[in-house]
Amino acid sequence: MNQYQSILITGVSGFIGRYVARYFSEQGWSVIGIDNSPPENAPIANLSAYYCLQLPDITLNNLLKEHSPEVCIHCAGRASVGLSMNNPIADFYTNTVLTFEILNALRLNTPKCRFIFLSSAAVYGNPESLPVSETQSLAPLSPYGFHKQQCEQLCLEFTKVYDLPTASLRIFSAYGPGLRRQVLWDICQKAITQNSVTLHGTGQESRDFIHALDIAKALMVVANSAPMQGEAYNLASGREVSIYELSGIVLNTLEYEGIPQFDGIVPIGTPLNWRAETSKLAALGFSASVPLERGVKTFANWCRAELVGV
Question: If 0-12 CB within 10 Å is exposed, 13-18 middle and 19+ buried, where does residue 286 land?
Answer without folding.
Answer: buried
